[in-house]
Specification:
Strands 4-20-5-19-16-3-15-6 form an 8-stranded mixed beta sheet, sandwiched between helices. By secondary structure, it is an alpha/beta fold. Helix 3 runs parallel beside helix 8 (321-337). The protein contains 12 helices and 20 strands. It folds into 2 domains: 1-36 and 215-272, no CATH class; 39-167 and 181-213 and 321-486, Alkaline Phosphatase, subunit A (3-Layer(aba) Sandwich). 25% of the residues lie in helices and 17% in strands.
Length: 493
């Protein structure tokens, strides 16, 4: 007779300790193994428009639609990854998107006021209208939190909220705003007391230690003393469930036995707080301790006021965000592989970013300045920097195997959006300009839920949030978000 285990099976042990098991083949009929593999979701954001003032075409949109699309200057990093392995066939590019606008108090669904800066985040990642002329904060839970509510069903699951850009890098009229406001945030959650912003982690060391350096904490306070006594005698959590483990292992097939042993290896490694890389088997590994964080730089741009004169310092405004991005994307991928999280948000650059663009472009100005200098090539190169980080996460997930031989990417949906596009500027500058929410672009990767990656989809007039909702649909979270309910059918098989 074939043996099955429920998905929520726990190993019971001494002192009331209980250990959750990972997804095993034995937990589902042979033909339903894939159904037991959890879905994962990630949303990321870049605080720059995809074109500069004065241009009526961009260096992002491919010339043709469908598969085999052109890797333009802004999309080149999809095919130019660090190991040369292209992710073009794993990512779809959606262009022609639009966030509608209107007068404050009379906004269309998921629309914004005529003002541009700070007003495109809530409509895109929560599907909500802006609250006022300069009120771009989400008015409901963001996509990452919507997904987490549906997919996080075990105590170890957490919503990852990370950001790559360290601070605002802008000093306005002598007031340093390097850590203030919510324009460096991308996650809002609904609580009993209302909607709350989640402050993202930008320290690679803190992100690593919170995932892989924490000590075991017994779940039952009444029995904590007993468990603590055992732990001080160098007994691990695995020892607490030793007898349950010995009874279960002989009943498992070879694949499940191997996966369970990997799971135990992971837990033992967490308890030992390993500081060096330690492979625990399969896709789940304990990443190396990243060590001290890169130094934090000062402001790159100073607005003097009185005509908005800008003083730029090419030695500031960059805190090795490349290294930070590499580590944070690696940690997201590993947290997904170890089933520590199933939902993540990654703010790559601030809503109105003053990060130094020189490391990416060789042009001595900030991200925001590039768009208003009319420097089309520089803007494309900064967009490509954001695409590179997205591509890295896609590749990391593609390279990690699942229990049934598929990859993590086969069960994941990832989406990336930008602050703006190019075209008519209702704020008063006319067009074409970077203060526009016409001709916007979104990237969507993964194969969860029948997604069809590797294509260029032109979707004139569709909302960027429709792409985000498509990613929600792909991981089984239906009903839309905020004011919008539908995804794009073209993104699915």
């Amino acid at each position: 007779m074939t043996m099955y285990l429920p998905r929520r099976t726990l190993l019971r042990g001494i002192g009331g300790f209980a250990l959750a098991l990972p997804a095993l083949e034995i937990m589902a009929p042979p033909k339903a193994v894939a159904a037991s593999i959890p879905k994962r979701f990630a949303v990321s954001y870049g605080g720059i428009s995809t074109n500069a003032d004065g241009w009526d075409y961009d260096l992002l949109t491919p010339a043709t639609t469908g598969t085999g699309y052109e890797l333009t200057r802004a999309l080149a990093t999809l095919g130019d990854t660090e190991d040369g392995a292209s992710v073009q066939n794993d990512v779809s590019v959606v262009t022609g998107l639009l966030i509608p606008w209107g007068d404050a108090g009379n906004l269309p669904p998921a629309g914004k006021s005529v003002y541009f800066h700070y007003n495109t985040v809530g409509p895109q990642i929560a599907g909500t209208r802006t609250s006022d002329d300069r009120g771009g904060e989400p008015q409901g839970p963001t996509a990452d939190q919507v997904v987490a509510t549906a997919l996080h069903d075990e105590p170890q699951h957490r919503v990852l909220a990370y950001r790559i850009q360290v601070g605002t890098y802008i000093n306005y009229n002598g007031s340093d705003n390097s850590t203030s406001g919510t324009s460096l945030c991308l996650s809002w959650k609904q609580t009993d007391s209302g909607l709350e912003v989640v402050d993202p982690i930008f320290s690679p060391q803190l992100a690593w230690s919170s995932l892989f350096g924490a000590d075991f904490v017994p779940p039952d306070p009444a029995e904590a003393a007993k468990a603590k006594q055992m732990l001080t005698r160098r007994k691990s959590a695995l020892d607490l469930v030793h007898y349950s483990t010995e009874r279960l292992l002989p009943k498992l097939g070879a694949a499940d036995r191997q996966r369970l042993e990997r799971h135990f290896d992971e837990i033992r490694a967490l308890e030992n707080r390993l500081a060096n890389a330690l492979q625990v088997g399969g896709a789940c590994q304990i990443p190396p301790d990243p060590g001290e964080d890169p130094p934090i730089a000062g402001s790159s741009s100073i607005y003097t006021g009185n005509g908005c004169e800008v003083i730029f310092d090419a030695t500031q405004g960059y805190s090795d965000e490349d290294t930070r991005g590499d580590i944070l994307t690696d940690l997201i991928a590993m947290a997904f592989a170890c089933d520590l999280s199933r939902s993540a948000s990654l703010l790559m650059s601030e809503w109105k970013s003053y990060m130094n663009s020189y490391p990416m472009t060789g042009v001595e100005t900030d991200f925001h300045g590039l768009t208003h200098m009319g420097h089309q090539e520089g803007v494309a190169d900064v967009v490509a920097w954001h695409v590179k980080q997205f591509a890295r996460l896609v590749r990391k997930l593609r390279d990690k195997p699942e229990v049934d031989g598929s990859s993590l990417l086969d069960h994941t949906a990832l989406v990336h959006v930008f602050a703006g596009g190019w075209g008519y500027d209702p704020e008063g500058q006319g067009g074409p300009g970077a203060h526009s929410t016409e001709n916007m672009c979104a990237l969507i990767g993964g194969r969860a839920g029948g997604l069809k990656p590797g294509q260029h989809v032109s979707a004139p007039g569709k909302h960027p949030a429709n792409v985000v909702i498509s990613a929600l649909d792909a991981v089984g979270v239906t009903g839309g978000m905020g004011d919008l309910t539908e995804g794009l059918s073209e993104l699915f098989v």
